[in-house]
Write a structure and sequence with these properties.
Blueprint: E1 5-10, H1 16-29, E2 32-37, H2 52-58, H3 63-69, H4 72-92, E3 98-103, H5 105-116, E4 124-128, H6 136-139, E5 145-148, H7 158-176, E6 191-196, H8 201-213, E7 218-222, H9 226-236, E8 240-247, H10 249-256, H11 269-273, E9 277-282, E10 289-290, E11 306-310, E12 313-316, H12 320-333, E13 341-346, H13 363-376, E14 382-386, H14 393-408, H15 415-420
Parallel strand pairs: 1-2, 1-3, 3-4, 4-5, 6-7, 6-8, 8-9, 9-13, 13-14
Antiparallel strand pairs: 10-12, 11-12
Pfam families: UPF0261 (PF06792), UPF0261_C (PF23189)
Domain UPF0261: 5-178, 189-406
């Protein structure tokens, strides 16, 4: 079997010994190392397979210009861009099968910027001095494995050799795995993405089972910001081919600065790509607000219905005026959808908090919200209203049936046909 190639990202002026040790460990395991030098300022202490000059040139700037600037901060984006370009080319040709990064604060930022741009499924191991803290800005929505180096990565010793040997073993082992993440082959059934919140979990579990019975696999994303963004990145990479976008709380939180903010692109990707999608405003009637003092209600939300999701996460219900703002935002984000989509509205509540008997139930404001939502979405989207709550089995069953019908129709439903059926 051909040897797997593991790229080692490091500044070879400060991490050259460690990178060379990784090369030795990978080769002892049966892989081959590709040393990629992302350093700029001082001379490398070991030879690179992809030199810093090559990396800088691929990033759009000559190495001499970066050195003249005498700023690692200014050089980092160029070196990260160059390493990304070179690795993507090699991954696309099947010449690189995994990546290990070495770094402190700046090195971790540089290496993980590269890793976040690589496809899902490519092994990514980041050996970092900052991996024991909050790594969310480094990982983002990628499948990066963060490994705490414990000691600083400055010189070899008996402990650091073990840390680096473990990293080599991890990347080597991952690269041997034969299970692959692949884009859907033409004619194959798509993987279905489902967005979910805790107020929709029962419905989501039912949807998973219903899709399974019809021969479809699904992947669920916790719609707390990172989840929705990851789902849409998988759409772009061709991994997900159809969407049950059951939860829209990421849009509400984006507008009102909540925990679940999904970013400016959220809800627009499936329509842009023309993927079959069934949408539901699940969980969008309330926000997720992190408080600094347990169970202390912020002044901003004292006039709103609310429930505590846990001791430090408040879920205030939006009022009619605020919900109309959410509706307009949803409509604006769906303007790229030109058919092949259904919006299902559960008029008895958008989740377990909002259903009859729930702590955030408010039929009057729901009616105002749904009216605004229907007015805001483009006419190319079919609108279906049902006198059910979002987790009602009949509602979930119809959502599943409608998405499968869109998939199996081959995406041929036009905007005109969808508009003609808006009142279904």
């Amino acid at each position: 079997m051909p040897k797997k190639v593991i790229a080692v990202l490091a500044t070879l002026d400060t991490k050259g010994q460690e990178a060379e040790f990784l090369r030795e460990q990978l080769e002892a395991l049966g892989s081959r190392a590709l040393l990629v030098d992302i350093g700029v300022m001082n001379a490398p202490v070991t030879a690179a397979d992809l030199t810093r000059a090559q990396v800088a040139r691929a990033g759009g700037t000559a190495l001499a210009a970066l050195k003249a600037g005498k700023s690692r901060e200014a050089a980092q984006p160029v070196m990260s861009a160059g390493a990304t370009k070179l690795l993507l080319q090699r991954i696309g040709r099947g010449e690189v099968h995994g990546v290990i990064g070495l770094g402190g604060l700046q090195g971790t930022a540089a290496c993980t910027a590269v890793m976040r741009a690589l496809p899902y499924g490519v092994p990514k191991v980041m050996v970092s001095t900052v991996a024991s803290g909050d790594t969310s800005s480094y990982v983002g929505i990628s499948d990066i494995t963060m490994m705490f180096s414990v000691g600083d990565i400055l010189g070899l010793n008996s402990f650091m050799r073990k840390v680096l040997a473990n990293a080599a073993g991890a990347a080597h082992g991952m690269a041997q795995v034969k299970v692959a993440v692949k884009a859907r082959a033409k004619g194959a059934r798509p993987l279905i993405g489902i967005s979910n919140l805790g107020v929709l979990t029962r419905g989501t579990m039912l949807a998973i089972e219903l899709f399974r019975k019809r021969g479809y696999e699904s992947i669920v994303f916790h719609a707390v910001g990172t989840g929705g963004r990851a789902m849409e990145l998988m759409m772009k990479q061709g991994i997900i081919g159809a969407v049950f976008d059951y939860a829209m709380g990421e849009i509400s939180d984006e507008l009102f600065h909540g925990l679940r903010a999904g970013g400016k692109e959220r809800l627009s990707v499936a329509g842009t790509l023309g993927l079959p999608q069934v949408l539901c405003p699940g969980g969008s009637e309330h926000l997720g607000i992190l408080v600094s003092v347990p169970h202390q209600l912020p002044e901003r939300w004292k006039e709103h219905k609310h429930v505590w999701h846990n001791e430090v996460v408040l879920a205030p219900r939006l009022n009619a005026k605020e919900l109309k703002m959410v509706a307009r935002e949803v409509g604006a984000r769906l303007q790229s959808t030109r058919g092949n989509a259904v919006l299902m509205i559960p008029t008895l509540g958008t989740g377990s908090y909002a259903m009859p008997g729930g702590p955030l139930n408010d039929p009057k404001d729901d009616r105002a919200y749904f009216t605004a939502l229907k007015a805001a979405v483009p006419t190319t989207i079919e609108i279906v209203e049902r006198p059910l709550h979002a987790e009602d089995p009949a509602f979930v069953q119809e959502a599943v049936d409608r998405l499968i019908a869109l998939i199996e129709a081959g995406g041929t439903r036009t905007g005109r046909r969808a508009a003609a059926r808006r009142r279904a």
